[in-house]
């Protein structure tokens, strides 16, 4: 009601049209203010002054199911793990307006200020354990396509789990899973995207900076999920790997890579193995790295 009204609405009018008490109206207004809505109260009534880009389930055209939205969390990955262990449906979502302890790969953190998009998908994979990496590279490839289709932003996959533009890092994807034998019970994909948030780091950029305008995060989340779900339902592990390779910035480049297994590697990245490892060639020798950090050569 407040969003569709050009003038303030009195508590009496709202209570009459909704069929609730004025006390109930007041309590709900206070709840909305606590959730971050810019509602002003005056003698004329209530007015919505802030059209912020909120991510609550009722803000979407069709209210989302299996969707857990928070104003603030330490980490969506931590909350998603609790939900996964209790049991939930495929593609349950945990999203937060900001994270106090956003997680990056390894011991790194992820700057998670308001305005970004920070969420975890809880996925019930149909693929066996050997193909768990497909979900990470698939998510990055799907996000690359999404931001290109929606905003004309040419951000590309960087091995192993980042989305980057020449101006800096745009997004990162983490995975965590629980297995029973060779079967994955659940796999959580934690995704952080720099959207409209302010950044202090010179090696990061946002979709707002790259596109030149503010981004509707609801549209981004919906389109990304549709793209990713479509990919998982229609494509094979091999074709998903090919999609990543078509949208990457790593293959063909000279790299300097620090791998936990192989130590420091230098050479040219020439492709991915069937298990998602990066193949680095130096002269006639090829070495593979399952995980690692790529630095400027």
UniProtKB/TrEMBL annotation:
Residues 49-236 form the BPL/LPL catalytic domain. It is an enzyme of class 6 (ligase). Its EC number is 6.3.4.15. One of its GO terms (cellular component) is cytoplasm. Pfam families: BPL_C, BPL_LplA_LipB, HTH_11. It catalyses: biotin + L-lysyl-[protein] + ATP = N(6)-biotinyl-L-lysyl-[protein] + AMP + diphosphate + H(+). Keywords: Biotin, Ligase. GO terms for molecular function: biotin--[biotin carboxyl-carrier protein] ligase activity. This is biotin--[biotin carboxyl-carrier protein] ligase. It comes from Spirochaeta isovalerica.
């Amino acid at each position: 009601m407040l969003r569709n009204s050009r003038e303030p609405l009195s508590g009496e009018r709202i209570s009459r049209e909704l069929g609730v008490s004025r006390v109930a109206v007041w309590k709900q207004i206070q709840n909305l203010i606590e959730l971050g809505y810019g509602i002003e109260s005056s003698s004329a009534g209530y007015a919505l002054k802030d059209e912020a880009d909120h991510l609550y389930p009722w803000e979407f055209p069709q209210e989302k199911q299996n969707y857990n939205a928070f104003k603030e969390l330490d980490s969506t990955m931590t909350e998603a793990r609790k939900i996964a262990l209790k049991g939930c449906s495929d593609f349950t979502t945990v999203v937060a307006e900001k994270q106090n302890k956003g997680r990056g790969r390894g011991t790194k953190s992820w700057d998670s200020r308001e305005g970004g998009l920070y969420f975890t998908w809880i996925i019930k994979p149909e693929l066996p354990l050997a193909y768990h990496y497909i979900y990470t590279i698939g998510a990055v490839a799907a996000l690359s396509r999404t931001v290109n289709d929606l905003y004309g932003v040419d951000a590309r996959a960087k091995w192993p789990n980042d989305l980057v533009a020449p101006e800096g890092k745009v997004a990162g994807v983490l995975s965590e899973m629980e297995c029973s034998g060779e079967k994955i019970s659940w796999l959580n994909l934690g995704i952080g995207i720099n959207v409209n948030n302010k950044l202090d780091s010179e090696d990061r950029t946002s979709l707002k900076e790259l596109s030149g305008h503010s981004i509707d995060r609801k549209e981004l989340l919906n389109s990304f999920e549709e793209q990713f779900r479509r990919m998982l339902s229609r494509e094979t592990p091999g074709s998903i790997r090919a999609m990543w390779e078509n949208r990457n910035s790593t293959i063909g480049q000279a790299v300097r890579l620090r791998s936990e297994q192989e130590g420091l590697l230098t050479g040219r990245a020439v492709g991915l193995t069937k298990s998602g490892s990066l193949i680095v060639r130096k002269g006639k020798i090829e070495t593979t790295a399952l995980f690692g950090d790529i630095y400027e050569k």
